[in-house]
Amino acid sequence: MVIRKKEFLSIPNILSYIRIMLIPLIVYFYLFAENYTVAAIIAAVSGLTDLADGFIARRFNMITDFGKFIDPVADKLTQCTLILCLLSRYDIMWMLVIIFFVKEISMALAGLFSVCKNNKKLDGAKWFGKVSTVVQFVSMTALFAFEMSLSAVNFLITLCAVFMLLAFVLYIKEYINLNKESK
């Protein structure tokens, strides 16, 4: 893949870079400064840049191959950061840590298998992956920002787990169908 300067510096891709650059700020304000409100605001800004980059890319025909790579990388790095930060505060987050890493590693391997074996790949994120990402960002930002009862915390974390597992199962189904089409 050859990346042209125009692709590299497109507005949607710059927004993805901003999301990646916000990660150390989230970690600093959440773990070290223990300023959960500021960390939540930064996480919310990160989520909004994710929405903006997708909207701009589609609306103004700025979708690039590099953008298809960097956007999900920024998403996964941010999601991982939020999960690991919350792990310092809520023990039940181990459930999400395990689901997140199993899901992402499995999907990476399934994608690699599809490309190497059949020279096929999924064409972008599916609706269920997008819904799962939104549920995670909103829930985790709320967990960053607000003191909640243990039952509310458990509900939000379980909600994230359910949507992550649903997305995982549906993506695996997509990969199975993709590989069946190749035979």
Q: What string, H for helix and E for strand, traces the elements in order?
A: HHHHHHH
Strand content: under 5%
- What's the total count of β strands? 0
Termini gap: 26 Å
Overall description:
- This protein is an all-alpha fold and 183 residues long.
- It has one domain (5-181): Four Helix Bundle (Hemerythrin (Met), subunit A) (Up-down Bundle).
- The chain has helices spanning 5-8, 11-32, 36-59, 65-87, 93-118, 127-145, 150-181.
- Helix 4 (65-87) packs antiparallel against helix 5.
- The longest helix is centred in the C-terminal third of the chain and has 32 residues, at 150-181.
- It starts with a helix and ends with a helix.
- The model has no long low-confidence stretch (mean pLDDT 90).
